[in-house]
Specification:
The protein contains nine helices and eight strands. By secondary structure, it is of the alpha/beta class. The chain has one domain: Spore Coat Polysaccharide Biosynthesis Protein SpsA, Chain A (Alpha-Beta Complex). Strands 3-2-1-4-7 form a five-stranded mixed sheet, with helices on both faces. Helix 1 links the parallel strand 1 and strand 2.
């Protein structure tokens, strides 16, 4: 195996959330798939920097905002492929074998991939969310950032990479990827990426409707800065 990946993790006071993700990266590092792990930090005041040093990850200080954090981190990426992951996710066992197979297939050089979505909650409501995400991706080709994104460096640069939008940076880059390579070349992997259900603690239905409202606002052309002000207040 010659092709490798740089894993980019946008962080902000992530110390309490990182360990499950880092544990899942161990096998990828051991097999030689992972060339580098980058913590793109938006101004943490916890021990995120110390964790990066302890595990041998590169720590890059950036302005706050996932889009900006990812955009700047790519400057320091050394591998031919980039894997973007949120700090509160956990990779399923065997993920590295599937990614290794994907990036070493010549026909996939102009394709992108993302993981199957799952919440760390066994409730029926959580399963319903997972079902909805599956069909959103199948029908509309619209994965969100919490499903990860695997993209070749050449294609990433061709589409202009992540924007500096204060919100919807994942929707924005997926739109440009599909415009460049077509929805059929944005592929869902078999491997599962489990993400924290903490964001749904105010209620599953409420969160779903809130997300839909902001997505529609963005699609209808509302200023992302205004959306972010409402979303994060």
């Amino acid at each position: 195996m010659t092709v490798k990946i740089s894993v980019i993790i946008p962080c902000l006071n992530s110390a309490a959330r990182l360990m499950p993700l880092l544990a899942g990266l161990v096998d990828g590092t051991a097999t030689g798939l992972i060339k580098q792990v980058i913590f793109a930090d938006g101004g943490s005041d916890d021990i995120t920097a110390e964790i990066a040093e302890e595990v041998g990850a590169d720590f890059v200080s950036t302005p706050k905002g996932r889009g900006r954090q990812c955009k700047i981190a790519v400057i320091y990426a050394k591998a031919e492929w980039l894997l973007f992951l949120h700090d509160d996710c956990q990779l399923a066992q065997g993920w590295e074998d599937e990614l290794m197979g994907f990036i070493n297939e010549a026909e996939n050089q102009n394709k992108c991939a993302y993981f199957r979505f799952k919440l760390d909650d066994k409730s029926l409501k959580a399963k319903f969310v997972g079902w909805g995400v599956y069909w959103r991706c199948k029908i509309f080709g619209l994965p969100y950032g919490d499903q990860g994104l695997l993209i070749g460096r050449e294609l990433y640069e061709k589409i202009g990479g992540f924007s500096s939008l204060p919100i919807m940076e994942d929707v924005d880059i997926i739109g440009r990827i599909k415009a460049e390579i077509g929805k059929q070349n944005l592929l869902m992997l078999d491997s599962v990426l489990t993400t924290s259900a903490d964001k749904y603690k105010t209620g599953y239905f409420k969160r779903i409707m809130r997300n839909f409202k902001y997505l529609m606002s963005y699609k209808l052309g509302k200023d992302p800065k205004k959306i972010a002000e409402s979303y994060y207040k």
